[in-house]
Every structure is written in structure tokens, then in C-alpha cells.
Amino acid sequence: GLGAETVASALYLEGCRDFFVSSTEEGVALRPLLPQSQLFVLQGVEPGDEVHCQASALTPVLISAAMAKRYLSQMPNSAFALKVNTGMNRLGLEPAEFLSLLPSLAPGACRLLMSHLACADEPGHPLNAQQLQQFEFLAEIARAAMPNVQLSLANSAGTFLGASYHFDVLRPGAALYGINP
Asked: Which of 21, 42, 69, 102 could make an S-S bridge to 26, C-beta 3.0–4.6 Å?
């Protein structure tokens, strides 16, 4: 409700260079305002949107094995991010799917490996530690194959779980607006 252009411009002035948008359309609209930034599309890429992602230099977050296979076959050298399921069980490649896909990835094409914490708003929940352990395991394998890939686990609530959850990229959303996760 504050306006994506106003918020993105303010965040850019404060040093933010990685932005996450929900859809390809949001990314296309923001690209002219953020020409030097990396724009990740969280919902991934729908069939036919690949050309829009490429034309606007958007980085789709591939959230299923089928989406990853389709995108990689059509855009083999284009940038992308991968979301792995470490316990939220909503979106993301299963660890086995990620591991089977890894050998076929073009060097440098995967910019980010990410996951999403299911219970970060409950700091003492045991699933947080389990997801961290699973992500660390997958991250170690990913970095061996893709040394420059960035890693991201923490959203707003995850940023308050401690430095071990932070990795390379934090994804604060609601917390930027003063919402207590």
C-alpha cells in the first residue's frame, strides 16, 4: 500500500541491491527504477514468461522440479535461483530433486539457493534447527559445485533467530514496515 516504486527507491538509496518481487509483472515494472539491482521473482516463471524475465534481466526463483526442467531447457544459460524445501513443505525442490539437478546446471547461472523457514516466528520451535541443518547440508554441496552461489534462508522472522540463519542474503519483508514477525 506504500507504492513499490517509492519503497524500492528508498531501499536502493539505503544500499539494498537485491530485491524480491512476487511476480514477473512486478519485476518488469520495477526494472527501470533499479537498473543495477538483482530482481528475484519469488513465484518463479510461468510458461511464456521466460522471455519477459530475460528481456528485463529478472532472476526467477525456480520452485519445482518441473519448473526447473522447463526453464533450464528453454533458457540454459540464463540466470535463475533455486528454492529448496527444507521443511516448510509448500514450495521448493525436494532435496533429492535438487541433488539430481545440480550436475546439469550451467556454471554461474544459479545466483541464489534459498529456502523458507516454516516456524521462524516461534524461536524455540525445533523445526527451525532442523531446517537450518538441512539447508547447511545442501548449501555445502551447492557451494562445492557452484562456488559463487549466494545462500538465503532467513525472511523477516528468520533474521531474529541469530547469525547462523543469515547466510549471504536476508529477505526481510514485513519487518521493513515495523511488523513484528
From this structure: 21
